[in-house]
Design a protein that fits this description.
Elements (H helix, E strand, L loop, with lengths): L4 H13 L21 E5 L2 E4 L4 E4 L14 H10 L11 H13 L5 E5 L2 H16 L3 E5 L17 H4 L11 H4 L2 E4 L4 H10 L4 E6 L15 H12 L2 E5 L11 H6 L5 E4 L1 H4 L5 E5 L1 H4 L18 H16 L2 H24 L4 E5 L2 E5 L8 H4 L4 H13 L2 E2 L8 E2 L6 H15 L2
Parallel strand pairs: 3-13, 5-6, 5-7, 7-8, 8-9
Antiparallel strand pairs: 1-2, 2-3, 4-10, 9-10, 11-12, 12-14
Helix pairs in contact: 2-12, 3-12, 7-8, 13-16
Bound molecules: 4'-deoxy-4'-aminopyridoxal-5'-phosphate (PMP).
GO molecular function: glutamate-1-semialdehyde 2,1-aminomutase activity; pyridoxal phosphate binding; transaminase activity
Pathway: Porphyrin-containing compound metabolism; protoporphyrin-IX biosynthesis; 5-aminolevulinate from L-glutamyl-tRNA(Glu): step 2/2
Subunit structure: Homodimer.
Length: 429
């Protein structure tokens, strides 16, 4: 068993001063009945905890570390920019460079606004859609997570499921939630029904084009196409939340991979290369309603922060100039997720693997996982047991069943094979 004495002592101390000892719930390892590792440093594909345990990192800060931790080019850009000051709260050249870069990479994005988190990005995109259409209601999907703004904490995924309680948060007023309608992922009929029940009232449909917060659930054939069509017909703004998938599933995200153009897109952590960043953007006509051009107010003291922009521009430029990043992380995905699939099959274990490119989930259920209801059939104790075993063997996975595994450019085939060998040992094959 790994020595975790320092992490344990820090967790005891942390709980005295921070709710649950953590600054974001998933980090508490509550969903797997464990206590968290406190991370001291990260290097390429590895994490090191306070007790100096070295682990292969399959979280990558929940996505942004697509080049691996502490990539030398990103690190150098940050070291250089900090010499000139950490924040000005004023317009900078780097913000123009960043906006141009994002608009070049994504044909659906004609204008973009930087914010500081994915939560801010989705909250602002919805406000923009409402301001643009003059309508109030929105449709989201059960099991999709779009951050923690009030109106989106309705049947949300990620940590909200993992904690096993009702998926709605206390402290959200019925007023805030009443305009949020929920449909089922991969069930177009459920969307159609809402459109006919609330004719002319739907401002926006927001979804993860590949869901990753109930574990990874790919969209089935025609699901997104039909949503695109009904949004166009009904004058509803289609928002793809690409906080996880953007710049990962392809340079141009899921929208490039799947060939569907949303009206607005939201992005997050990957744009910041590990610094706190989010962004929302899309059609010029829609984005022009945002202040100071239009009546939809949205602002941020640290938005477009020079350090965050420098890190993000460097990571995005690297991705743009090195298409082999995608070839490599997708091939590693095939190796890892294909390998896990083979192992559970050989073991006759009641498990299923879903994956798209470099993100994937091993579900502890024998059902095909295609929506929130099927994801919830997973045996959470089974996952927790597997998670602890794998952590002890040096593979750091998401501390909850309903999350994705993330691969980076820094991972090697040898890392994957080591992880697969541990998984094979766990499943007894
Ligand atoms: N949207 C999606 C799809 C996400 O996965 C997340 C967080 N992982 C968010 C929004 C919220 O982003 P943040 O945690 O940066 O607020």
């Amino acid at each position: 068993m790994a020595n975790t004495a320092k992490s344990a002592a820090l967790f005891t101390e942390a709980q005295k001063y921070i709710p649950g000892g953590v600054n974001s719930p998933a980090r508490a390892f509550q969903a797997v009945g464990d206590t968290p590792r406190f991370i001291k440093k990260a290097e390429a594909q590895y994490l090191y905890d306070e007790d100096d345990n070295k682990m292969i990192d399959y979280i990558g800060s929940w996505g942004p570390m697509i080049l691996g931790n502490n990539h030398p080019a990103v690190l150098k850009a940050v070291e250089e920019v900090i010499q000139d000051g950490l924040s000005f709260g004023a317009a900078t050249a780097r913000e123009v460079d960043m906006a141009k870069l994002v608009c070049e990479i994504l044909p659906s994005v004609e204008m973009v606004r930087m914010v500081n988190s994915g939560t801010e990005a989705t909250m602002s995109a919805l406000r923009t859609a409402r301001g643009y259409t003059g309508r109030n209601r929105i449709i989201k999907f059960e099991g999709c997570y779009h951050g923690h703004s009030d109106g989106l904490l309705v049947k949300a995924g990620s940590g909200l499921i993992a904690e096993g309680g009702t998926p709605d948060s206390a402290g959200v007023t019925p007023g805030c939630a009443q305009d949020t309608l929920t449909a089922q992922y991969n069930n177009f009929e459920s969307v159609e029904k809402l459109f006919s029940a609330y004719k002319g009232e739907i401002a926006a449909v927001i979804l993860e084009p590949v869901a990753a917060n109930m574990g990874v659930v790919p969209p089935e054939k025609d699901f997104l196409e039909k949503i695109r069509k009904i949004c166009t017909e009904e004058g509803t703004v289609l928002i793809f939340d690409e906080v996880i998938t953007g710049f990962r599933l392809a340079l141009g995200g899921a929208q490039e991979l799947l060939g569907i153009k949303p009206d607005l897109s939201t992005f997050g952590k990957i744009i910041g290369g590990g610094m706190p960043v989010g962004a929302y953007g899309g059609k010029k006509e829609i984005m022009e309603v945002v202040a100071p051009l239009g009546p939809v107010y949205q602002a941020g003291t640290l938005s477009g922060n020079p350090v965050a922009m420098a890190a993000g521009i460097t990571q995005l430029t690297y991705l743009k100039e090195h298409p082999d990043v995608y070839t490599k992380i997708n091939a590693l995905g095939e190796r890892l997720y294909g390998g896990l699939e083979e192992i559970v099959k050989k073991a006759g274990a009641p498990c299923k693997v879903n994956h798209v490119g470099s993100i994937g989930t091993l579900y502890f259920t024998d059902q095909n996982v295609r929506d929130f209801a099927s994801a919830k059939t997973a045996d959470l104790k089974g996952y927790a047991d597997y998670f602890k075993f794998m952590m002890d063997k040096g593979s750091y996975f998401a501390p909850a069943q309903f999350e994705a595994m993330f691969l980076s450019y820094a991972h090697t085939e040898a890392d994957i094979d080591r992880t697969l060998a541990a998984a094979a040992e766990y499943f007894g094959v």
